[in-house]
Amino acid sequence: MPIRYDASMTDASMTDASPAEASSAGAASTALAPTDAPADEATQRLAAAIDLQTVRVVHAIAAHGSLTAAAAALGYSQPAVSQQVRRFQERTGVALVERAGRGIRLTESGRVIARHARAVTTSLEAAAGELAELKGLRAGRLRLVAFPSASPTLVPELIASLGARHPGVAITFVEAEPPEAVEAVRENRADLAITFSYPGDRDDPHRASARGLAVRAFGDEPIRLVLPAGHPLAGLDDVPLERLADDPWIAGCPRCRGHLLELAAAAGFAPRIAFETDNFVAVEGMVAQGLGVALLPALALRATPRHPGVVVRPTAREDVRSLHLVTAKGAERVPAVAAALRALEALDPGGRAAAAVGSIDDDV
Length: 364
Hints:
The chain contains 12 helices and 14 strands. Strands 5, 6, 7, 8, 11, 12, 13 and 14 form an 8-stranded mixed sheet that branches. The protein has helices at 19-32, 39-49, 52-64, 67-74, 78-92, 108-134, 154-165, 178-186, 254-266, 280-288, 298-302, 335-347; strands at residues 3-4, 15-16, 97-100, 103-106, 141-146, 170-175, 192-197, 213-228, 248-251, 272-276, 294-297, 310-314, 320-328, 355-359.
């Protein structure tokens, strides 16, 4: 449904275009790509009409769902975003948005532009980044997202390393679990995500939800058993999980809790979960008081000084979780992202350098 715009338009104040306006839009479309013009010529004219600002606006509308939210995300006024959409429609006769109830949504044409917007903006950021690199990477930005136990370990080391080498790069950081971190990269709210996955995880966010993104392996992080210092098995070099079948367990984050259930099932028992907390410091405190035993990843144990009331032992199977670095495809050409990837390789928490494992292509 075509929409009539004016400079003061809001999401809820759109009105249908009049027949005269629809006719005018059709005339504009005919002028842009006449039916007797060769197809490639018409395509070239449309390509020339798609400016970067329109791409950014459409991408923001797709990500945030309204003109008002898109304007806020871009730092523009709502009328400015409305005018950008209106000018594109006037130039091409192609409507990018349509009314949906009291709001708006992208038309099929708008969704086409939104689908290509991520690749376009990444390529342009790469070009801008290469220019900045020619100037010694004195400018640029890195929007980082990582899981909680990376926040006090890998993240400060990365930020300090980049700050020492490239003080002109502006770095922001948000903490998020892997599914939300992958989504942030997909929606262009983050440039680089540090994530993890467990072997056999049926909800691994690095599969279907990471289609079209680049996923790099970043090593394997050991999983450790945390026992009270006076536990009967505390003196063993490594502990078979089945020998803890009768102990109460303290479970961690949802993904960690799911992994505990899978490991216990493989060892032939169902763990009796007495307490649950996402706070790995609290886990150690509970174990120290003899309230149960727990599994914690090595980064969580690195994050704070070891509690004197616990001992840490490897599992008999030397269980691990995998770490990943997630970016948009081609983002390694953006110098700030490339510098972050190099810095993370030097940190190498899993005992091997980060290696690209390719990208998962979109089905479309």
